[in-house]
Specification:
The complex is a heterodimer of chains A (1091) and B (290).
Chain A lengths: L1 H13 L2 H15 L1 H5 L13 H14 L1 H8 L1 H8 L3 H5 L5 H30 L15 H30 L2 H18 L5 H7 L4 H7 L5 H6 L6 H24 L7 H6 L25 H20 L2 H17 L15 H33 L3 H5 L5 H33 L7 H9 L3 H18 L2 H20 L26 H26 L8 H10 L3 H28 L5 H15 L9 E12 L4 E11 L6 E7 L6 E8 L3 E4 L7 E10 L4 E10 L18 E4 L5 E2 L10 H6 L14 H4 L8 E13 L3 E3 L3 E8 L2 E7 L9 E5 L2 E7 L10 E7 L7 H18 L7 E7 L12 E5 L16 H11 L15 H20 L2 H21 L14 H19 L1 H15 L14 H11 L5 H9 L6
Parallel strand pairs in A: 1-10, 16-17, 17-18
Antiparallel strand pairs in A: 1-2, 2-7, 3-6, 3-9, 4-7, 5-6, 8-14, 10-13, 11-14, 12-13, 15-16
Helix pairs in contact in A: 1-8, 2-8, 4-8, 4-9, 5-9, 5-10, 6-9, 8-9, 9-10, 9-14, 10-17, 11-12, 11-14, 12-14, 16-20, 17-18, 18-20, 18-21, 18-22, 18-23, 20-21, 20-22, 20-24, 22-23, 22-24, 24-26, 30-31, 30-32, 31-32, 32-34, 33-34, 34-35, 34-37, 35-36
Chain B lengths: L3 E9 L5 E10 L2 E6 L6 H8 L7 E6 L2 E2 L4 H5 L2 E4 L11 H11 L5 H14 L15 H12 L6 E5 L7 H14 L4 E6 L2 H7 L2 E6 L2 E6 L1 H6 L5 E6 L4 H7 L1 E8 L2 E7 L9 E2 L4 H11 L1
Parallel strand pairs in B: 3-8, 3-9, 6-7, 7-8
Antiparallel strand pairs in B: 1-2, 1-4, 4-5, 9-10, 11-13, 11-14, 12-13
The chains are: A alpha+beta (1091), B alpha/beta (290).
Organism (chain A): Arcicella gelida
Protein name (chain A): M1 family aminopeptidase
GO molecular function (chain A): aminopeptidase activity
Chain lengths: 1091, 290
């Protein structure tokens, strides 16, 4: 008997097409599984077919495919109820055990068959031709089999047991649909558990368990060892298998071979309805059905309401929403964290968090309920009655579409309420309801609406709920994928681009306009999809696609045809308008074209990289900013000097490679011939009629304008914006070949047969030792700028403000440096509040106070005091221990959060609104990172602005690691030791994590290239250790000498090149006692694991 | 009033079953009975008239309206009760009727309400109008189906096996309602219960295996058999023998004995008794012949 049930189940499944469909789906998906699961994650030196990577991929895919397990395991018993055959089966002398066990085992075998697709698919994935062989180990069957048996099978058993039980007990198809999702949600919830062991134990897919179990593994281990079968892995597997057995036993005890469940009968209570005295006519009254446009509109609204109500009444819907809120509750504690410190729960942070966490649930709602809402009549067999009504098919589809939109809107409104509640509970009362509204209804809602159009279309096209859902999911995945493979244009990539981040300073800025146009374009496309859906939709009992199409067309009324034509015409015209903006008014480059261009640039112009060019010694500019047009006009000149021993005959000018930027009127104080051979690369060679002799000086005039035309859709133009303009002198003309335009990706370079690109030159590269910055055009300048901007904005740059005035509604600011600065200065403009103070730095010899100013966005007052105090303490410490502060002012200026960094330029520190300003620092539990980051940036006024380092390996140790050291010392003055320790612990964690992910062999600090985790995180720890070992006083003395000897300006002692770590370390050695000299070698010249 | 004229309607399913074969019918206002055994093609015919299914060939005209081409126009005047249907279990009868009334274009709220209340009364569901449809018994659900078919004062009402599951009282109530409606409406009633047709329909057709075997007025159709139907009570074990010797059109048990009806142009023998032919005999003989 048991065998009979068992074999029946298998036979039944083998005859169902979805069995093979699921298998194929898993098979194909798994073939690219590693790419999918590890997308955006740098595996470093760990190979893509190492057992650990395979195990994690398998675990993740199993988790994502739980819904398949649910659809197979949930229905064996439910099916009998669904098809009303229970009476026929249960009346037979069968035993509960045989019935349940037979069905369970039969389904389990089928499930194993389906999931074996995962195993075969992943193995196939290893042999995909475009794989890079360097990323793979030799093929090993056991590397796949062991993780499959040990990671996947126990999870599958657990899932199978639970799904089978819930399906059998609930007898509700919707439960079957949602439970796979619920498991996934539970998994997400475990992500919120902070205790690592518990998290690892409770992870149903063993992902965190794998991480925990392999925590101490080296790269070697990761590439060779199989998944451990003991310890936390064993516990995890035992736990979930045990739970599975428990679920099965529970189901066995509870299940009864009964056709009707008794509780349902008891619940049936006759509702008493008061008999109303109504006079009924003998014959039926007359009604007047109407079908004009207005009536159809009323039908549309009434039906939309009817359909959304029907979803809102579903328990399954509320279960999804509940899960969503649980996930949010667990996760929303960390908002906008930077440097380990939370931000204030500002509205845009909350929205971003809410959106990120709810999007998954919105997609679930979208995929499932678009299927439900379309087939609801068919599911309850009301379809014949429904289809015999004269409702227009388009009104029918549209009302279901609107019904879903209404459901989204309700969920969004409740998310907004949750967000406001969260802010209130956290004592934050600046509710920005408009920001909330736009954050959801402008950014997320159109996205959902567009995918709903697609979902409706696929449901109608396939004519089957289930296939329609899968087609929708596949469509979404493919759509993401084609974006990666070159369909980058917003007119081709379904749904278009997403809106740039909301900024308190700049709102949605100019990005909104392009966004809205593109969304209108796609909504029109969506309407066309909906019209097609309404033509294709199954009506009555016809199911064949071609029949549906022809008969659907026949029934398409004139007004719908006109509407369709109208949408099509609008779609094409708006598409053309967008194309005109993005590709005619602006330039559109595909990734391939960009690569080609970059490769061409390098191949053609690399020859000029180190040709002798004059150095800029003075700059005078008139900068007119037009933030509302996002434009600028710059007119001015460079004074240049030939510092080389040879006469210079040609000036090579590289214009900024950006569309809409024009460089004109380039003239010299002597006649030139213009060579436009390299015009394609915006590279012009001016042949001087009279060569510039060594030591001679000349003037170069130029005019540069930025005039944006139309709009672009890449959210990239962030330099000049409505409020919060920020760019630096890198936009201005520069001399000779610019390395920054080279292609960076090594694989791409290889494709173009370009030599591997050094991140930094070797420490003895004589050509780079004389450069303080990549392609530097100067060894120091005097700067004189007049910046004008629209009132009421303030414009800022380096130098003393010598005059300011207002004319014609524009604000003018004249800045002038009183000494030489490095050739690096910003142009900033925005509407600012200002906090002012002044102080006399302790170590400054003159008694002139330094003006301290913070220019900030109104509302961002939280940490101004901390930043101001940090400025003062930093100036005191550095001037006392290193050298006097060189400028008369120090300004911090906020800029929009499109970029998230702070940067030190002469006397001015542009500071992103995303860091520091909105940090919610709890002095009990957090390190005061607003204070620290400020101190770090102020330290750059010394490290980088007083002393420059040669552009070779180790440059960042001098610039960044010394700034880290300086800031830690200031932090140590202000806060107790435990805060410093907490800070160092955070640095260690960051370093360890980044180091594991790095694909590059770790370099010692002294030779560091561009690895942030080394020069920031490890550097901070190493320097702290150094001062602990040889004493803070000694370190400071060494730095003072180093600065004194290598200072960039007014320093006759400085050799004709810039400093390297070789020099720096020499100063450390000099002050270290003999017994401690090895410490310096260990910390900076060796790669040591740090504890 | 316009007639419904069906001409040479044919439909063959993908699996080769000929559901309709050159069906031609003329159906005037009033009740029209469609009689036939299970699987004769009644439901296919009705679904095709109700525009829910495509025909392979042939035409259906309602007055000047070509139904196969203008499906939506027909739907505006159509009432349809399928043989099998379901309901949203969580909704009340009143709510679902309201929803369907909107779909049928009854946008005026007052009209809609009045119609729904009257219909609920006519089908005796007024008392339970707020109850969930999921809790309805089979008969109650069937009555709900009847109510929805009448929502829009249809000009063409198609009811497929409407009395299945109804008790005799409800059946009568339903037939009264139908005959009241049929004064102004073409009502097509399919059934395999001969008595229903006899009691209600001034016109009828018998179809079997997708073909119309006979159509006309029931009493005229009975007339064709008058004087040719004989009855005899026999032993159960003699049945095979009689079937071989005579044209037996029906056999049934009565008080434990077997009664057979045979058709014969001459008197088959003194043991047989000439009886008054009824519609059932006509039906059985037609099915038997085909």
């Amino acid at each position: 008997m048991l065998y009979e049930f068992f074999i029946f189940e298998i036979k039944y499944r083998l005859r169902r097409p979805e069995t093979y469909f699921f298998f194929l789906l898993l098979f194909l998906f798994s073939a690219v599984g590693v790419e999918f699961v590890f997308q955006g994650i740098d595996l470093g030196l760990v190979k893509k077919n190492s057992p650990l990577v395979i195990a994690k991929t398998m675990g993740a895919i199993t988790g994502l495919s739980m819904i398949i397990a649910s659809m197979i395991m949930g229905v064996p018993v439910l099916r009998d109820f669904q098809y009303d055959v229970t009476s026929l089966i249960y009346v037979n002398p069968i035993s509960k055990k045989n019935y349940l066990l037979g069905r369970f085992l039969g389904s389990l075998v089928v499930l194993l068959f389906i999931f074996s697709g995962l195993l075969w698919g992943m193995m196939l994935g290893e042999f995909i031709p475009w794989n890079n062989p360097n990323e793979f180990l030799p093929f090993q069957f056991i590397n796949y089999l062991q993780p499959f048996i040990w990671v996947v099978l126990p999870t599958l058993f657990f899932g199978a047991a639970v799904f089978f039980t819930t399906g059998a007990l609930s007898k509700n198809l919707m439960v079957v649909y949602t439970q796979g999702v619920v498991i996934f949600v539970l998994f997400m919830i475990t992500k919120g558990i902070t205790n690592e062991t518990f998290q690892a134990l409770l992870d149903p897919f063993s992902l965190t368990t794998l991480t925990k179990a392999t925590k101490g593994w080296t790269v070697m281990d990761r590439n060779s060892l199989l998944i451990p079968m003991s310890g936390i892995m064993l516990l995890n597997k035992l736990f979930w298998i045990g739970l599975g057995i428990l679920a099965l036993s529970f189901g066995y005890i509870k299940f009864q071979l009964m056709v009707i469940n008794e509780r349902a009968v008891n619940k049936k209570q006759k509702q008493k309805v008061k008999p109303l005295v109504i006079t009924f006519t003998k014959s039926l009254p007359t009604v007047t059905p109407v079908f004009h446009i207005k009536a159809q509109f009323v039908q549309l609204l009434l039906n939309a309401w009817f359909h959304s109500l029907s979803i809102l009444k579903l328990i399954s819907f509320w279960a999804i929403i509940l899960c969503c809120f649980i996930v949010i509750l667990v996760n929303s504690v960390s908002l906008g964290t930077s440097y380990g410190v939370d931000s204030y729960p500002t509205t845009y942070f909350i929205i971003e968090e809410l959106r990120e966490m709810s999007i998954y649930f919105f997609m679930i709602i979208l995929v499932f309920y678009s299927g439900e809402i379309i087939w609801k009549e068919k599911d309850v067999k009301l379809n014949l009655i429904h289809d015999a009504t004269p409702l227009s098919s388009f009104v029918n589809m549209s009302s279901r579409f609107l019904g879903l939109l209404f459901v989204y809107a309700i969920v969004m409104l409740s998310l907004i309420v949750a967000g406001v509640l969260f802010q209130t509970l956290n004592g934050y009362y600046r509710y920005e309801l408009d920001v909330y509204f736009f954050g959801f209804f402008l950014e997320l809602f159109p996205f959902l609406a567009l995918y709903t159009f697609a979902a409706m279309f696929f449901q109608a096209l396939t004519g089957n709920k289930f296939v329609g859902m899968l087609a929708t999911i596949a469509f979404a995945i493919i759509n993401v994928a084609v974006g990666v493979f070159g369909f980058e244009h917003t007119l081709l990539n379904f749904g278009g681009h997403s809106l740039a981040s909301y900024s308190d300073m700049n709102g949605y800025g100019h990005f909104l306009n392009a966004y809205l146009w593109v969304k209108i374009y796609w909504v029109l496309f969506g309407l066309l999809l909906l019209i097609f859906a309404s033509v294709l939709m199954v009506k009555g009992t016809e199911t064949g696609l071609s029949k549906r199409w022809t008969s659907g067309l026949k029934q398409t009324g004139k007004s719908l045809r006109i509407f369709c034509l109208l949408c099509l015409m609008l779609f094409i015209s708006i598409g053309a308008y967008i194309f005109y903006n993005t590709n005619v008014l602006n330039e559109f480059w595909t990734k391939g074209e960009q690569d080609n261009f970059r490769a061409g640039y390098e191949k053609t112009l690399k020859q000029f990289e180190y040709i002798p060019q004059p150095k800029i010694t003075a700059i005078k500019l008139k900068v007119e900013l037009f933030p509302s047009q996002r434009a600028y006009h710059i007119i001015g000149y460079y004074i240049v000097t030939n510092t080389s021993p040879l006469p210079i005959r040609e000036i090579h000018v590289q214009k900024l490679m950006e569309s809409n930027v024009e460089l004109t009127d380039v003239t010299f104080d002597r006649s030139v011939t213009t060579n436009n051979k390299y015009k394609k690369y915006h590279y012009t060679i001016y042949q001087l009629s009279q060569p510039l002799a060594p030591g001679d000086t000349m003037k170069m005039n130029f005019k540069q304008t930025l005039e944006p035309r139309g709009f672009e859709t890449n959210n990239a133009d962030i330099d000049v914006v409505y409020n919060g303009t920020f760019f630096d002198n890198a936009v201005l003309p520069s001399f000779d070949y610019q390395k920054k335009y080279e292609m960076q990706d090594e694989d791409n370079r290889n494709d173009f047969e370009l030599a591997p690109r050094l991140q930094k030159a070797k420490r003895d590269d004589v050509r780079e030792l004389v450069n303080a910055r990549s392609g530097s055009d100067s060894d120091g300048i005097n700067l004189d700028i007049v910046i004008s901007t629209e009132s009421p904005q303030t414009a800022l740059t380096s130098g003393d403000l010598v005059a300011k005035w207002n004319a014609d509604g524009r604000n003018y600011f004249h800045y002038k440096t009183n000494q030489r600065i490095i050739n690096f200065y910003p142009i900033v403009s925005g509407q600012y509040e200002v906090m002012r103070d002044s102080s006399i730095p302790l170590g400054n010899t003159s008694n002139k106070p330094v003006d301290l100013e913070i220019y900030y966005q109104k509302g961002h007052e939280y940490n101004l005091k901390r930043m101001m105090e940090s400025m003062k303490m930093s100036l005191d410490y550095y001037s006392k221990h290193f050298s006097p502060y060189q400028y008369k002012q120090l300004r911090i200026v906020e800029f929009p959060r499109y970029r998230t960094f702070a940067q030190s330029l002469p006397g001015i520190i542009p500071f992103s609104e995303a860091i520091g300003f909105v940090m919610d620092i709890d002095d009990e539990k957090d390190v005061d990172m607003a204070f620290y980051v400020t101190a770090h940036e102020v330290a750059h006024q010394w490290w980088g602005l007083q002393l420059e380092a040669a552009n070779v390996q180790g440059q960042n140790m001098i610039l960044e690691t010394l700034a880290q050291y300086s800031a830690i010392m200031v932090l140590k003055e202000k806060y107790l030791n435990n805060k410093v320790q907490q800070f160092l612990k955070f640095q260690l964690d960051e370093y360890t994590e980044a180091n594991l992910k790095s694909s590059k062999k770790e370099l010692p600090l002294a030779l560091v290239e561009n690895e942030e985790h080394i020069y920031y995180n490890k550097g901070a720890i190493a320097m702290y250790e150094l001062q602990k070992q040889i004493g803070e006083k000694n370190v400071n003395e060494a730095l003072q000498h180093f600065l004194n000897d290598w200072h960039s300006f007014n320093n006759p002692k400085k050799p004709n090149r810039y400093a390297t770590t070789l020099n720096l370390i020499q100063y450390f050695r000099e002050v270290a006692p003999n017994s401690k000299k090895h410490v310096i070698t260990d910390l900076f010249e060796h790669v040591n694991s740090i504890e | 009033m316009e007639n419904l004229i069906i001409t040479d309607l044919s439909k063959t399913y993908n699996n080769g079953v000929k559901a309709l074969h050159k069906v031609s019918l003329q159906i005037p206002v009033g009740m029209f009975g469609l009689l036939g055994p299970n699987g004769a093609g009644k439901s296919t015919l009705m679904r095709t008239i109700a525009t829910l299914q495509e025909a392979d060939s042939g035409s259906i005209q309602l007055g000047n309206l070509n139904i196969l081409e203008n499906k939506n126009e027909l739907k505006k005047v159509l009432g349809y009760l399928p043989q099998q249907f379901g309901v949203y279990p969580a909704l009340s009868a009143e709510m679902l009727l309201n929803h369907l009334a909107v779909l049928k274009g009854i946008i005026n709220r007052k009209e809609r309400k009045e119609m729904i209340q009257n219909l609920l009364d006519k089908v005796n569901l007024y008392e339970v109008r707020k109850q969930k449809l999921g809790e309805f018994s089979g008969g109650m659900k069937q009555r709900f189906g009847i109510a929805q078919a009448l929502l829009n004062n249809p000009k063409l009402l198609i009811v497929d096996e409407p009395t299945a599951g109804l008790d005799p009282v409800e059946r009568n109530r339903f037939y009264n309602l139908l005959s009241q409606v049929s004064e102004h409406t073409i009502v097509i009633l399919s059934t395999h219960i001969v008595d229903d047709v006899k009691e209600l329909c001034p016109r009828m057709a018998i179809i079997n295996k997708g073909k119309v075997i006979i159509q006309g007025n029931p009493s005229q159709i009975i007339e064709t058999l008058q004087g040719r139907v004989y009855e005899k009570t026999i032993q159960k074990n003699e049945l095979e023998q009689y079937k071989n010797e005579y044209q037996v059109i029906s056999d049934r048990l009565y008080l434990g004995n077997q009664i057979v009806h045979v058709i014969s142009d001459i008197h088959p023998g003194s043991t047989f008794k000439l009886i008054e032919a009824n519609l059932e005999d006509v039906y059985m003989s037609q099915i038997f012949n085909s």
